[in-house]
Structures are given as C-alpha cells and as structure tokens.
Design a protein that fits this description.
The structure is a single chain. By secondary structure, the chain is an alpha+beta fold. It is 16% helix and 31% strand. The protein is built from 16 helices and 43 strands.
Length: 790
C-alpha cells in the first residue's frame, strides 16, 4: 500500500507566535511600573480607586509614603491609612545634593506640598524580607510620593539603601495613549508632538537642548538639522552623517568624547548629551517614495516627503530622499556588508538628548514604515521637548542590568572630580565615567609608574553586594566555587561564580566581615540578581543588597603603595596594623587617627603589583583622594587610567569579563582553575558536576603568546596552525617591559603545549599572518605573584 502523499493537516486556526519581551511591553492594560532607587523617591499622580503595590526588592529597606490633595495637604486617609509625623527621610534626601531628585523637587514645588506636615506612612523595616509588599487603594485623587530613604552606609554595619518597585493598577483605563509621556528633565521651553506618520520642523537656539522621546517604544524617528545662519544666506547644508562618521570614528556618535554631528563643511551642529537607547542608524536615508515604490507599496507616506512639507516653512528646498540620523533605528551592517534591520531596542520613554552647538533649524519625523519590523510593525508618536541652555545635564548613557530593569544613567563616581583635575578623557564603563588616560603622563608613563613607583586609579564601578543573615555562609558556600567555610573574618578570597553547565557568571572577591556577614565584589549587576534568585529558590534566611552606590573605591598600586599608605592609615587595636595586613586581607581603617574619616582597606589589586584598595562612602571620596595625592607626591604617585590598567593586567595574566571569559567559558578554560577546589571542597556548589566533567575532558586552554611582530593584535583575532583555526586572541598588548607584543589566547588543548609555534591571522585571517609561540606561563610578568605577596 502506497503512503499517503499528502501530509496530515493540523486542525484548527494558526496559533500566535510566542515572543518573550521585556515586562514593560507585557504589563496588563492600565498597569504601570515605577522604580525607586535606594536614597531616591518618585512622584506619581493617582486617581480614585487606583491600586498601589510597593515591593521591597532586596529587603530591609524602609519606605515612606505620602499622599497629598490637589491643594498640597498631606493626608494619609487618602490611602485609607493613619499617618504619623513628617517624612523625615524624604526631607533629608531632598536637602542632599542628589541631582537625580531634581524632577521630584520640581513636582513638589509645583504642587505646593509642604513636607513638614504630619501624615507620612512608614512601611517595611530592618526585618523586612526581599520581595515583601505593602498595598494601598486611593480613596480620592491625590499625589503619591514613595521614598526609599537612607544615609551614608557604614561599611561595617552594611546598612545600605536599596530599591523599591511601585506598581499602579489604574481603576480607569486611559484610552488616549498606551504609555504616559515621561516627566520633563527640567522646565521645557517647548513641547512638540510629532504624530504618527508625520514630521515637525522647529527652531532651536545655540546652547539649548533637544530631547527626542519614543513615547510608546519600538518607534523610529529621523532627525535633520541646519545651521540657521547658513539658511539665512541661502546655504542648505544639512547634518551630514558621512562627515560625522569620518570625524568621530564611530558608526554614530554617543555621549562622551565622540558625541558631535557635523554638516558637510565639518561645522558642528549638535552634540549628544544623553542616550537611554544606545542603538541608532547613521547609514541609510530616511524612507522615501522610491523605497516604498520598489518594494510594492506605491504612494506610501514616507519621512522624506514629510520632511519636505515640514521644512517648507523655513524655505528649505525639497529632496526625493533625505540623509538623516535615524534615531532608534536598529539598522547595521553584518560581516558580509549587508545592511539589515530589525525591531528597535527602544522602550517606552526612551530618549536622546542633544545640545545645539549653533542656532539650528530642526526636523523630526515619526517614521510611517508599517511594512517591516522597523517600528515594531506598529508606527506610533514621537515627542520633542526643548530646554534652556541654562539647564545643566550630565553626559550619560543608560544601561539595564536585566531586560526588565529600568534604565540607569551613567554616573560620576565620588572620585570623579578629583580625577577630572588631571584629564578630560573619560569613557563610559559599566554605568560610570572612568578616566581613560591622563593628559600630563599618558598610558606608557602611567604603566611605568605602576611598575616602579605608585599609581592611583578609580575602580568604583565594581559591583558590591552585602550578603547578610544566618544562612549567608551556606549561600556563599553553594554559589561560589571557593570554600567560604574556610574564609576567616577579615579575609578575602578570589573566586568564580558559575551556572549549572559550568559557564562563568562572573569572577570577583568575597570579603568576610563577620560570622554571618559577607561582601561580594564583582563586575556586573546581574551577579547580585542571580545570587538573590538562588537564595529565594532555597528559601534561605539571607539578604543580598546592593551597595555599589554607597561604597566607592580607588586602587593604590605599585612598589611604593605600602610606604605611601602607612602615613595615612589608622586601625583600631583589635584590627591589623598597616604592616600586618597580609595579601588578600582587609581591615576597617580611618584616615590618620581615631577620629578620622572611615574607610575599608584591602590588600588586593588588578595590576600584578604590591597594592591596596581603599573603599569609602562617596561623600568622603574627595577627602580620601586629596590625602593620598598629597602624601603620594614624594612616592612618585601618578593617576592611572583604563588604558594603562589593561596593559598591566594583561602582562600579569589577569582575566577580564567579556574578553577572557564568558558564560560559555569555565574557570579552567579561563585560566583560573585554582578557584575550583574540587578535592578539598566537599560541599556541593552550583556547577560542580559540570566542572568535574569539564576538568576531566578539557577542550580549550588559556595560554600566553609571544608574538614575533610589532603589528597590533586585538581581541578576537584568529589563531592558526596551517589552514586550520585552533584558537583566538582574548586580550593583547605591547609590553613596554618585555619590548614585544604579547597576548592571552584560548587554544585547543591539542596545540596548547608551551613552545608550540602558531600564527595569528590578520585581515581575512589568511592574507596576513603573525608568527607567535606559546609562552611557558599565562602571565608574562611575575607568574609566581611574588610582587603582590611581598
């Protein structure tokens, strides 16, 4: 019998595609989410019947809630509660110099709310567990203020301030918009709505700011501008993305050093000050009639014709297709040179903030493309606000530690102003601005200062988490590869943290402050999120609270670092003296004497030299820096930036996340197998079984390479034996000490023996090769770590 030539048909209609998106896109209609940072607050207008739920994200964070009538009278009864005294914690926050609360101050002043009135509601406390909630229902229309108050963290008490999340379920759905327009950054000079599939032109004075907002998310906008002075002379020189890419050396400018857009005569027109999206296009034209004609949609409305219509009132000639900066467009070139596009990265409320560098005429569109994923298949509105040049906005780029997290803007560390006296060359690193190099010396001189004398550098972006509670040791024993039970109070251990499959989440240092008190210092925020998830799964009595913003740190490294700090460090009699502090130990300390400013001193570092790290609250950073700087001059102290740090850490064989390891790399492949004591640590830990298998059957090994060429080598360069690729470069540098190029590389174990000759591929990997030899050790400098131990 012959088989049925027709396949069986599945019954029923088609099912919708399953797509997992950030929570902001999947919240039920009428539901809103607000994030309250530790030592922060939010203001939310609420209506009768609105339901309010406040979540204590990390636990032990007090919360103050205020409800005020439209006339500014505080009344806890508006939430069905009986209040107590004034909101002392909120008032303390508002009297601080916290610039992130500027919008809140404006909102309180506009509503004439006197915070000295009684009626604040206090919820949560020191005993509140993570994810604890408090709920209210608005009895009448009011202004809601939710605060997460806190002061300067005591590094020993670990009393950090942590975030809250506020969820609002609206009693009445607002039909006019899916998402509310975010609060202005300051008092706007103008508010311009660019309705879907239209464009608007407007004038902006030199020095004023332009905020371009994606209201509902996943919506693109083309932006063009002209020098108004040139237009007055009949010269129509628009912003030119080709000139801009050439001068900035980037696919598109971002806040920081390479932030300006130019016209074809290289006249700067605007500068990018803030960006919460981080993904744009500066290659393709704004959509045009020809584009739609060619794909089968003749007569489709398009941005270029919308530009022509909007700009006509300024006397600008029309064009069939406009060059533009395409904000929020997720368009790029792949490795084959093909221009591709997909849904934008932008979320509701994401924005780009520009500053006009001369008087300009601008035009912004709300792209009408509904034929591709360019606008998430659903074109929506764009909103433009302008602000006076008298306002001050800090350069910043937003990042999100998880897809569901609210954006966090780039910050200045507590040491920023101190380092800014010596350089303007700052780059965004992990949510903070860090010095790249310093004007007076430069990276080579900074390198030699580290190797021969002393340097000071800002490492505040390292993520800190306070792990406290009766089950803290049990948790640390389970999530870290090292043996936390053997870690003494005052001790520090370098360890890895792995997934079940053995891939690394992060590496970092674990401090033990007490029997039930630990501090994890790693490279990313997700590490803390993941630790919290594991504690919750196990039901352990432990809190994991972020303290990154409460504890900033500088590294003081180099042969003279001990002598330098000896003049500044005072420790209590029950703690080790400066000269008694061993490698990977720490101690609470004070500046010069018992009454001095408190800080934590650890004998740790990332340079391969004798060195220390000094951690203090941001409010004390300037004083700590000045003291170190003053004493350090006789010890040859110089500031050191990220460029020189990369040189010394590669030379010392110290690994860096995203370069030398990822979640596809286990600790053995990352060259830190010593952090996995499979024989001496008998307790189970996450990833143990996978790491046993991986150790028994290794595939790749991290090795050092000595390169017989001066040609620059970089991360990702392929490594060959003959035609076959057998590895790739992870980190590289030209060693001033050795006078040659060296690198770290991940190599197939079949070819990882010291002395093996390999070739590093450049260009396409075959047209240029650089001879190299596998070195005896991963670290080219002091492989036995005698210098940091000394």
């Amino acid at each position: 019998m012959l088989d049925d030539p027709y396949p069986k048909v599945r019954p029923g209609p088609p099912k919708p595609s399953t797509i997992i998106k950030p929570q902001v896109f999947s919240l039920p209609p009428g539901t809103e989410r607000y994030a309250v940072e530790g030592c922060g607050a939010v203001l939310i207008p609420v209506e009768t019947g609105d339901q309010i739920t406040i979540t204590n994200d990390e636990g032990a964070q007090p919360c103050e809630v205020i409800a005020a009538t439209p006339k500014g009278k505080i009344d806890a009864g508006l939430l069905g509660q009986s209040g107590s005294g004034p909101a002392a914690g909120l008032m303390a926050l508002l009297t601080s110099d916290n610039q992130s609360l500027r919008g809140l101050r404006m909102g309180i002043e506009a509503r004439q709310i006197d915070l000295a009135q009684s009626g604040a509601i206090t919820v949560f406390g020191a005993g509140s567990p993570a994810k604890d909630t408090a709920s209210f229902t608005a009895k009448s229309k009011c202004t809601l203020i939710v605060a997460a108050p806190g002061g300067a963290m005591d590094a020993e008490a670990q009393d950090t301030a942590t975030p809250l999340t506020v969820m609002i379920k609206r009693a009445t759905l607002k039909s006019h918009a899916r998402f509310e327009l975010p609060d202005p950054l300051a008092d706007p000079v103008s508010d311009i709505r660019v309705h879907s599939q239209t464009a608007e032109a407007f004038f902006v004075k030199a020095g004023d700011y332009i905020q371009i907002i994606d209201v509902d998310g996943r919506q693109c906008t083309d932006f063009e501008c002209f020098s108004a002075r040139k237009l007055d002379k009949g010269i129509e020189h628009a912003l030119d993305v080709t000139t801009t890419r050439t001068l900035m050396g980037h696919a598109y400018p971002m806040p920081g050093l390479h932030a300006k857009y130019y016209d074809q005569e290289m006249v700067p027109l605007v500068e990018v000050v803030q960006d919460t999206c981080g993904r744009h296009d500066a290659f393709a034209l704004a959509c045009s009639a020809k584009y739609y004609d060619d794909i089968g949609y003749p007569g489709h409305i398009n941005c270029s014709e919308n530009f022509n219509k909007a700009l006509s009132k300024f006397g600008v000639s029309g064009r069939p297709g406009w060059m533009a900066i395409n904000f929020f467009f997720n368009t790029f070139l792949d490795e084959h040179g093909v221009l591709y596009s997909d849904e934008p990265w932008s979320r509701p409320g994401d924005y780009v903030l520009l500053r006009a560098l001369t008087d300009i005429v601008c035009v912004s569109s709300a792209c009408p493309d509904d034929t591709t994923a360019a606008n998430g298949w659903n074109p929506t509105d764009i909103h433009v606000r302008t602000y006076s040049g008298k306002e001050t906005f800090q350069r910043s780029v937003a990042y999100r530690p998880t897809p569901d997290a609210e954006p966090r803007m780039t910050k200045q560390t507590g040491f920023h102003e101190s380092f800014a006296k010596h350089t303007r060359n700052f780059v965004e690193y992990n949510g903070y601005w860090l010095a790249n190099c310093f004007a007076e010396a430069g990276p080579i001189e900074e390198y030699w200062a580290c190797r021969k004398e002393a340097v000071i550098m800002d490492l505040s972006p390292l993520r800190k988490f306070e792990i406290t509670g009766p089950d803290s040791e049990a948790l640390c024993q389970y999530i870290f590869t090292r043996n936390a039970k053997k870690l003494a109070i005052g001790g520090v251990v370098y360890t890895a943290m792995c997934y079940e499959h053995g891939g690394m989440i992060d590496d970092g240092t674990l401090f033990r402050l007490g029997r039930d008190n630990f501090r994890w210092i790693g490279g990313n925020d997700y590490g803390g999120e993941w630790i919290r998830e594991q504690a919750e799964k196990l039901g352990l009595k432990v809190l994991i609270r972020s303290s990154t913003d409460q504890l900033h740190n500088v590294a003081v490294q180099g042969p003279n670092s001990r002598d330098l700090l000896r003049e500044l460090v005072w420790t209590a009699p029950h703690n080790p003296e400066m000269d008694q502090l061993g490698w990977f130990r720490f101690t609470p300390a004070r500046l010069r004497n018992e009454g001095g400013t408190p800080f934590v001193l650890s004998r740790t570092g990332y340079t391969g030299e004798l060195g220390y790290e000094v951690m203090c609250h941001p409010k004390d950073c300037a004083e700590i820096f000045d003291a170190i700087w003053e004493v350090g001059q006789k010890y040859g102290l110089k500031p050191m930036g990220l460029e020189a740090l990369d040189m010394v850490r590669v030379e010392a064989g110290l690994i860096f996340a995203g370069y030398d390891f990822s979640d596809q790399t286990d600790p053995f492949e990352a060259g830190i197998g010593f952090t996995v004591p499979l024989k001496s640590k008998e307790d189970d830990f996450i990833g143990r079984d996978a790491l046993i298998r991986r150790k028994e059957h290794p595939m790749r090994k991290l090795v050092g390479l000595e390169i017989d060429a001066e040609v620059e080598v970089g991360h990702g360069d392929c490594i060959h034996i003959g035609r076959a690729q057998i590895g790739e470069v992870t980190s590289a540098m030209r060693s001033p000490l050795l006078g040659k190029n060296i690198c770290m590389a991940r190599i197939d174990v079949a070819h990882a023996e010291p002395g093996t000759a390999v070739e590093i591929g450049k260009l396409d990997g075959h047209q240029m090769r650089l001879p190299a030899t596998i070195a005896p050790t991963l670290a080219a400098y002091d492989p036995t770590k005698e210098r940091p131990r000394s």
